[in-house]
Amino acid sequence: DEVVFSGIQPSGIPHIGNYLGLFLPFLELQSSLPRSTPLYLSIVGLHAITLPRDPNILRQERMDMLAALLACGVDPERTCLFYQEDIPEHAELAWILNTLTPVGRLQRMTTWKSQIATRTSSSPDQITDLDLKLGLLAYPTLQSADIMLYKSTIVPVGEDQTQHLELARDTAEAFNRAYGDIFPLPQTRIVPSKRILSLRDPSAKMSKSAPLAASRIVLTDPPEAIRKAVKTAVTDSEPSIKFDPEGRPGVSNLLLIWSSLDPSGQTPEQLAEQAQKDGWGMAKLKDAVTDVVVERFGNIRAEYERIRQEKGWLSQIAGQGRAKAGEVAKKTMEEVRRAVGIDKL
Ligand code: AQP
Asked: Pfam families of this UniProt entry (predicted)?
């Protein structure tokens, strides 16, 4: 039987990449899957602390992420919405999985390699940088634990997470080989996943923590901010409008955003063709993109601001999720502990 799990870090207000890469696919599963299919969506604080965070800001951002997910349409009656750090079994299973995960495999993760590239000049096998912490290297193992704890089979995530998902699959397999068949092998639901690029640098993905705010559009941006971010988005010097993600990533990124939110359901290629036929320039394309984003984010923003004030309700939702997820997590860990031989004597 299918079980859906996904997670998001409470590391800032979600941007349109998170929205198109994770939220929308998740919401689609929420509305299309039969009610008997369990859905889990976790705000993963233990992942967020793999980079230094101010505790007070983190506390606020955890709550804000819950409000943002609810504002986007996650239904807490249908989806088990919870804080990862409320369920100690995540860290416990991660530890056990650490004993099965080859260090070399973790060192090959692109996320780790990009951290090394930005922070140290030493070669990957001779890391002397004391700022690089073990938690950051082991992050994908914790992610495997998140997925496996609920015996998840479908993991809707953005395209950037594919490598981590492959690791989760191999880790589940390694566990089953070592201790018996406990875990199903998770599938990545990356279709029709989208990789939204930074508006400032189309060679990088859009990211919550990139220093330049103008590189992203976040759910709470007022219309003027959205207009400005799109207007100043880096494209290229060719005047034509064409969907060519390889050759023309900047324009293609805008077309992808437009097509993902446009009610007509047209593909980026079709929208580009039409724009080209109508003799549009880049300014017109940017206006069209701005309009669909403003339209979609306007309601979400109002809802977010309202929900954010409802602290009592938010903690009630978190409590509900904690109870539901906790029950399943406890059961899985009992099985795991028995299989490994570390159950109560
Ligand atoms: N640019 C993106 N395009 C499509 N999907 C994306 N996701 C992230 N960026 C893009 C998807 O959003 C989900 C939640 O991501 P996360 O917060 O857990 O981690 P992340 O991938 O590291 O996201 P950010 O925005 O880049 O955050 P920071 O800067 O804090 O690391 C995932 O499913 C991811 O694929």
From this structure: tRNA-synt_1b (PF00579)
Query: For ligand 1, what atom is nearest to the CA of residue 194?
Result: 4
What does the angle CA 293 – CA 299 – CA 304 come to, to the nearest 5 degrees? 110
Tell me the C-alpha distance between 283 and 314, whole Å: 41
Of ligand 1's listed atoms, the one at least distance from the Cα of 197 is 1
Nearest protein CA to atom 12 of ligand 1, as residue: 18
Atom of ligand 1 nearest to the CA of 48: 30
Count Cβ atoms below 10 Å from residue 296 Cβ, excluding itself: 20
ipTM for the assembly: 0.95
Is the shortest distance between the CB of 216 and ligand 1 below 6 Å? no
Residue 190 corresponds to which amino acid?
Answer: I
Tally of domains in the chain: 2
pLDDT digits (tens, 9 = 90+) for 180-218: 999 998 876 654 568 899 999 999 999 988 889 899 999
Same domain, 93 and 232: no
Q: Which domain holds residue 128?
A: 4-195+311-340
